[in-house]
Specification:
By secondary structure, this protein is mainly α. The protein is built from five helices and no strands. Helix 2 runs antiparallel to helix 3.
Length: 125
């Protein structure tokens, strides 16, 4: 039986595109790009990275809503004071989001044969 081999450069590129989709758009494209890649690619590592990327982007949307809506309401009610008070929490969220995304990209570039797993997220796919 012949073992199937996959192109490492193609695997690296497609995996990085999945994780970097959040840089293109935080809305539709962040899910559409990895979803499309998971459909067109037959590489199991790329498909795993696409699913993990979609799960991470859904987590980003969820936590942005859970944190962002109350902060927005409090800011509106306090004429902007709430935004100042919650700035450290929001800044930490952005740093965590961008840091994890960059970590995923570096991992895919450095070790394209192993799928990346984000820590501390809930997985739907």
């Amino acid at each position: 039986m012949q073992e199937i081999t996959y192109n490492r450069d193609k695997r690296r590129l497609l995996s990085c595109l999945c994780h970097a989709a959040i840089f293109f758009s935080t809305a539709f494209l962040s899910i559409a790009v990895p979803f499309t890649i998971s459909i067109i690619s037959d590489d199991p590592v790329v498909q795993s990275n696409a699913k993990e990327s979609m799960n991470f982007h859904l987590n980003v949307w969820f936590w942005a809503t859970v944190i962002g809506v109350p902060v927005g309401i409090i800011s509106w009610l306090t004429f902007g004071l709430g935004g100042i008070l919650f700035f450290p929490l929001v800044a930490f969220g952005f740093l965590l989001h961008w840091g994890l995304t960059i970590w995923a990209l570096l991992s895919c570039l450095g070790n394209p044969d192993e799928p990346f797993r984000y820590p501390f997220i809930f997985r739907i796919f």
